[in-house]
Write a structure and sequence with these properties.
The chain is of the alpha+beta class. About 35% of the residues lie in helices and about 25% in strands. Strand 6 and strand 7 form a beta hairpin.
Length: about 280
């Protein structure tokens, strides 16, 4: 390792194909951050794939006396030998969606697709494009329901990228602006966000509440028995997630919200007169 370190550029062509700098070698696993057992074998395979002249085999300790510790140390020494040519990286991935359960019958999904296709007759170019994207997703759902699983489609449901950005306040004092607050954000991509007409969805982690889309339809309630009018709102949408035994599904709800006081004709409500009930 010391010899290679001292003569890295002169020896480069003997060991690797890239002519300058370092390339990144990455291993991926789902283990705990403190569990490195799988890392060494995976990284050694990456080094083997990116070196020449069977050099890794020559440097590997694979004798009858080689135990687990010696084998791990052998891999670590190989990594150290070629650290001038490679940057090493371990990526811990989240498990994602293990299983999808389709509710309803295949006729339901085919009916939904037909309805969506017919909506294109009433859409402009932008919404027409959105519906076309949704239809391609529905097609995959229907094929999956039939047992024709496109694994490449299902591994792209959602991808999460995390980073931090500076929260710049132009009104902050100079000394504070030099060290801005870092806001953690998550960027979601994948076909699931296409269902909402997006290419990506940004989540700022310092936000306390998630705003879910909902409907809000005003209705005037005319009571002929006493000549009063109540202003009501029908409110509904997706308002949460139901979880049981590692299964999750969206929760839908609908409520009628009514003003506390009734009004006679030509009487105007103030905010103090309002309350809600479900």
């Amino acid at each position: 390792a010391q010899h290679v370190d001292e003569n890295a550029e002169q020896l480069r062509s003997n060991f690797v194909e890239h002519n300058e700098g370092k390339i990144t070698l990455t291993t991926c696993d789902f283990n705990d951050k403190y569990d490195w057992d799988d890392f060494y074998d995976q990284m050694k395979k990456e080094v083997v794939k990116n070196t020449k002249n069977n050099i890794c085999q020559l440097l590997t300790a694979d004798f009858s006396t080689t135990g687990k510790v010696q084998s791990i140390l052998s891999t670590a020494c190989i990594m150290n030998t070629f650290k001038f040519y490679f940057k090493y990286q371990r990526e811990i991935r989240i498990c994602g969606i293990r299983q999808v359960h389709f509710m309803g019958t295949i006729n339901d999904w085919q009916s939904l697709r037909i309805k969506t296709e017919q909506l294109k007759l009433f859409s402009n170019d932008q919404f027409h494009g959105y519906l076309s994207g949704v239809l391609s997703i529905f097609d995959q759902f229907i094929e999956t329901y039939k047992g024709n699983v496109n694994r490449n489609f299902w591994i792209k449901v959602c991808d999460v990228k995390r980073k931090t950005i500076a929260d710049i306040n132009p009104c902050a004092p100079v000394q504070l602006s030099l060290f801005p607050k870092r806001i953690p954000i998550e960027k979601l991509t994948g076909w699931v966000v296409q269902l909402f007409g997006l290419e990506e969805f940004i989540i700022e982690s310092d936000e306390d509440d998630s705003i879910l889309p909902c409907i809000n339809t005003p209705v005037d309630l005319l009571d002929g028995r006493n000549g009063t009018t109540d202003q009501c709102h029908i409110v509904g949408g997706f308002h949460g997630i139901y979880s049981t035994e590692n299964r999750y599904k969206p929760v839908m709800s609908v409520s009628v919200i009514q003003m506390l006081k009734s009004k006679t004709q030509n009487q105007i409500f103030s905010e103090e007169d309002c309350t809600t009930y479900l």
